[in-house]
Amino acid sequence: MAETKRDYYEVLGVQKTASDDEIKAAFRQMAKKYHPDLHPDDKDAEAKFKEVNEAYEVLSDADKRAKYDQFGHAAFDPSAGGYSGGSPFSGFGGFSGFGGFGDIFGDIFGGGSRSSANNYGPMRGENLRQSITITFEEAAFGCEKEVQYRREENCSVCGGSGAAPGTKPQTCPTCGGRGSVTRVQNTILGSMQTTVPCSACGGTGKIIKDPCKNCSGSGRVRTVQKRKFRIPAGIDDGQTIRLSGGGDDGLRGGPKGDLHISVRVKPHKRFIRDGADIHQNIAIPVTTAILGGTINVPTLDKDVKLTIPEGTPAQKTFRMKGAGIQKLNSQDKGDMYINITVDIPKKLTDKQREIIKQFAEETGDSNVAGVEKTKPSRKGLFRK
Length: 384
What we know:
384 residues; alpha+beta; Helix Hairpins; Chaperone, DNAj Protein, Chain A; HSP40/DNAj peptide-binding domain; 4-stranded mixed beta sheet; 8 helices; 20% helix; flat; disordered C terminus
């Protein structure tokens, strides 16, 4: 009965606003999770698998999805008023061939009914990863570095074939050189073809009777490489540099992989970076904050003068335009922000203390110790 069925969106675990790609991705995950051949010990797998297929068949079709959104399960129930004719599984192939699902099940089960011989042709080499630590200044101005790492290369003796010089690998008689074999499984849902790597040749399609002694028949040797590279000005902590062709050699004539270098930047004892901007704290004497003056401000390459106006309060921030870090892949620079703190002296001479008391008396600051406090007038504090 239609009323006993779960909501199709709930079955696939997606929202009603899910895109076609999200629905397809959810179906892949669910189909793999519940396929009976992958979970022979799960008694409920078959029923759940059929439920997932039914939900996907409807939601993957724009017309059927629109009808389902309007009428729910009644859209495909002949006994309900909203029935529009036809089965939700029309064109589904009765589960025997899985119709338009061949590409999905091919991905899940290693090729489905299609040949995967191309999987054993030329293959791109693996990408490799390294990390390097640089100073704050090197990140700001750029620098040249060198890394040493290990990579897989094609054997120079056999040219990567794995066969001893003067010999050649032979075509695998089990798979006929395809590198894979196809198996047919009869399930309650019908016949299913799965393609798996050939166990006789390990998926290479070739049999090596006389292996190369230099690489032991693998066609590969592990080498230590050194490579110099340029770190651009403005690079930030955690960013990655890609060196094309710096990875492992490709298989069977495939291209080389790349080398990805993760950059770590040491923190600076004075500067704090925010993108291309730099922040720093500078303490000034209380007299400079009151009377104003000029201070030296360190930047990345030199000291510069900064004028402090009279009466500058603590936590006042000044901006020096263009004194920051060069933006990555650009000639523009960020700014430097100077956060002012006021250095209050902790020890005073008697003369200094007397001068400050006089200053407090003149400004009317009666909170200073030793300065006579006057009783504030209460007139006007309260109104009736």
